[in-house]
Amino acid sequence: MKKTFYALLLCLTLGNANNTLTAQKRSSGNPILPEFHADPEILYSNQTGRFYIYSTTDGAPGWGGYYFTVFSSKDLTDWKHEGIMLDLGTDQVPWADGNAWAPCIEEKLINGQYKYFFYYSGNTPHGKAIGVAVADHPTGPFTDLGRPLIDKRPEGQNHGQQIDVDVFTDPQSGKSYLYWGNGYMAGAELNADMTSIKEETVRLMTPQGGSLKDYAYREAPYVFYRNGLYYFLWSVDDTGSPNYHVAYGTARSPLGPIEVAADPVILIQRPEAEIYGPAHNSVLQLPGKDEWYMVYHRINKNYLKREKGPGFHRQVCIDRMEFNPDGTIRPVTPTHTGVYPVKVRKKK
Description:
Blueprint: H1 2-26, E1 37-44, E2 51-57, E3 67-73, E4 80-87, E5 101-110, E6 113-124, E7 127-135, E8 143-144, E9 166-169, E10 176-180, E11 186-189, E12 203-204, E13 219-226, E14 229-236, E15 245-251, E16 259-267, E17 276-285, E18 292-299, E19 314-321
Antiparallel strand pairs: 1-2, 2-3, 3-4, 5-6, 6-7, 7-8, 9-10, 10-11, 11-12, 13-14, 14-15, 15-16, 17-18, 18-19
């Protein structure tokens, strides 16, 4: 009898252990992309029913990457490399010669056909500029506009770079907006063609005040909408600093003014877990659900010393993002586990 009892106990124990291992294997783990990538932009495509991540290709000294790649997943855990989708080192982008940084993308249904508008920054003889390329599929082929979309600072701004672009379509009005800026934050409404801005709507939106401990704006604006509020997220400190982190505020319109949150820091390092510099994020809402995820990069722990280039040895991660009942964002805990598979029912 004792032998039978212990045999059953052993089976249950092994079964639970196997289930635990299976669950652990099913999580995405962090980082979710191989090698070095940064500044991730995530998209759920209604056309394909898959998730896509576009990023800065990292690991090159001086942030010298010159092309963009795209990865896809059906469930947020297993990511497939779909190849290079825009190359600034070729005549595909005649106006830029490298520094392919910080992209964003928007899917739009135009005259019954899906179009993809890919915004990014590149280098020109006169400094950084923002461009746009268009495709009929999330992985391309993409056709560049042939000239920069934004190649100068807004009026009244005398420092900073034209990088770190974000695109947002307001679900309330259907209008699309562009945001950008390192050293400042600017926003503007896009025209219906999605490849030009309404110049009269350009405005400086930089959150004022704060310090490197909390919300002093540096770069990487990101905008989304939930329950009547427009949320503005941005990165604080230098991308090579372990203290690089995410702060946020809210507004009642897509062009502000922004009110900094009472507790603005929502993603920051965890040295005890060897997680450093988590920031420059994008946000994903699962279609039809109040379920949210933050995709961000962090510094590879083996490259923390300045001589090793922490600012361009970054890796892409994903974790859950949740809200309090009053709409404030709960601090996101950066993990090594990542997330578990999700299912989205594709629109017919």
